[in-house]
């Protein structure tokens, strides 16, 4: 069964460093998402991406964050200068078609980011 | 701002008992999903409901979407220890390409 994959599974970084989280969505999917979950808190939407551009972003997704689909298969989330509060589990998700018709959103296993 | 609330936040029951988890909002959603999440893993989709009043069954799990598409419930019959986990509801918003998650209900089924 097709699945969303994410690498690395764990990432430890120093505050102020740049990190890139990688995701490979399901191959025929067109809509891509990043969410994060701070330990003990709810899953929070960060950004959605369609047709090579951001379609929606939350207030969390500030200038320190960027997303890219560099080669038609990978979908990346970059944090330019990490802060302690960026420590969280980051989930990538993909969907084949748009919302409104009950289309399933598939989540990856997540990358646990720890900023020291 | 769309918000989803879930109740109860924590639930501990004996194996074999029935339980219901609720998901409520003041906003209307185009679809509503229920996920189950294990510690350290991503959410795994259980069901998507789209039509107001819709009821879906998945073995011992029954999901209902409210008539006004603002609330939903998850009912588990004869709970098993394998049902232990965090149950998340998430609402889809057509006009905005995103899904809003509730805070989750942590279920513990005791043998």
User: Portion of residues in helices of chain A?
Assistant: under 10%
CATH architecture of chain B: Sandwich
Which value, in Å, is the CA radius of gyration of chain B? Answer: 13 Å
Mean pLDDT of chain B: 91
* End-to-end CA span of chain B: 41 Å
SS summary, helix count of chain B:
0
The CATH class of chain A is identified as Mainly Beta
**CATH fold-type name of chain B:** Immunoglobulin-like
Layout of helices and strands:
The complex is a heterodimer of chains A (116) and B (111).
Chain A: E1 5-7, E2 10-13, E3 19-24, E4 31-37, E5 44-50, E6 53-57, E7 65-68, E8 75-79, E9 88-95, E10 106-107, E11 111-115
Parallel strand pairs in A: 2-11
Antiparallel strand pairs in A: 1-3, 3-8, 4-5, 4-9, 5-6, 7-8, 9-10, 9-11
Chain B: E1 5-7, E2 10-14, E3 19-24, E4 31-37, E5 44-49, E6 55-58, E7 61-65, E8 71-76, E9 85-93, E10 98-101, E11 105-110
Parallel strand pairs in B: 2-11
Antiparallel strand pairs in B: 1-3, 3-8, 4-5, 4-9, 6-7, 7-8, 9-10, 9-11
Task: Provide a descriptive summary of the structure in words.
The complex is a heterodimer of chains A (116) and B (111). Helix content of chain A is 0%, strand content 48%. Chain A is built from no helices and eleven strands. In chain A, a hairpin with a 6-residue loop joins strand 7 and strand 8. The mean pLDDT of chain A is 91. Chain B has 111 residues and is mainly beta. Chain B has one domain: Immunoglobulin-like (Sandwich). Helices cover 0% and strands 55% of the residues of chain B. Chain B is built from no helices and eleven strands. In chain B, the strands form two sheets. In chain B, strands 2, 4, 5, 9, 10 and 11 form a six-stranded mixed beta sheet that branches. Chain B has a five-stranded antiparallel beta sheet with strand order 1-3-8-7-6, with no helix packed on it. In chain B, strand 9 and strand 10 form a beta hairpin. Chain B starts with a strand and ends with a strand. The mean pLDDT of chain B is 91. The chains are: A mainly beta (116), B mainly beta (111). Chains A and B meet through strand 4, strand 5 and strand 10 of A and strand 4, strand 5, strand 9 and strand 10 of B.
């Amino acid at each position: 069964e097709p699945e969303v994959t994410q690498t690395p599974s764990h990432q430890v970084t120093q505050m102020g460093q740049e990190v890139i989280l990688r995701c490979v969505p399901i191959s025929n999917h067109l809509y891509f998402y990043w969410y994060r979950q701070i330990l003990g808190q709810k899953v929070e939407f960060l950004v959605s991406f369609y047709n090579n551009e951001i379609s929606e972003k939350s207030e969390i997704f500030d200038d320190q964050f960027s997303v890219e689909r560099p080669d038609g298969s990978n979908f990346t989330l970059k944090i330019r200068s990490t802060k302690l509060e960026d420590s969280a589990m980051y989930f990538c998700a993909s969907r084949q078609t748009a919302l409104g018709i009950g289309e399933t959103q598939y989540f990856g296993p997540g990358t646990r980011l720890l900023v020291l | 701002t769309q918000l989803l609330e879930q109740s109860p936040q924590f639930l501990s029951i004996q194996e074999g008992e029935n339980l219901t988890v609720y998901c409520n909002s003041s906003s209307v959603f185009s679809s509503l999903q229920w996920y189950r999440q294990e510690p350290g893993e991503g959410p795994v989709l259980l069901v998507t409901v789209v039509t107001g009043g819709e009821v879906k069954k998945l073995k011992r799990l029954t999901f209902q979407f409210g008539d006004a598409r603002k609330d939903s419930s998850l009912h588990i019959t004869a709970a098993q220890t394998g049902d232990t986990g965090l149950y998340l509801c998430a609402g889809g918003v057509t006009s905005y390409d995103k899904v809003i998650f509730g805070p989750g209900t942590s279920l513990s089924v005791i043998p």
